[in-house]
Hints:
The protein is α+β, with helices and mostly antiparallel strands. It has helices spanning 3-11, 27-32, 61-69, 139-145; strands at 19-25, 38-41, 49-59, 84-96, 112-126, 134-136. A six-stranded mixed β-sheet has the order 2-5-4-3-1-6. Residues 1-15 have low confidence and may be disordered.
Amino acid sequence: MTAELAGIETMTAPSDECRALSVRRPWANLIVAGHKSIENRSWTSSHRGRMLIHAGRAWVPAGAALAAVQGIDGFGDPGLCAGGYVGVVRLVDVHPAAGCCGPWGFQDDGTYHWVLTNPQALPTPIPGSGRLGLYRAPAHVLAEVR
Ligand SMILES: [Zn+2]
């Protein structure tokens, strides 16, 4: 382990270890801008606390459409929605969809609502690739958000 990584480990309390989640665009961009407070997943997590949001390359037209319907501007053009690490949130709850959390929470069978608070967009997105699942936040990104 490098000295840099050891430093990160020291700063990261086990109870609030920062994780990262890759989310397709523009969902990821809507989250860090404070518009989308629910992330829909087919799996649950016991993680609570800080979570980096990575914006993947994939573009979801339905995300842009849902933002537009609510009168939220600026998320309809893939060219305006950055990829890479775009911000940080707090994951405060995960629960099964039960007709709640509209309009962002979907109600399909097997969907979990991940409840996000304290969104903070990074001034400049940090390039990097995402991974599947909820993963350990990359050290080079953590260094920029602390
Ligand atoms: Zn819900």
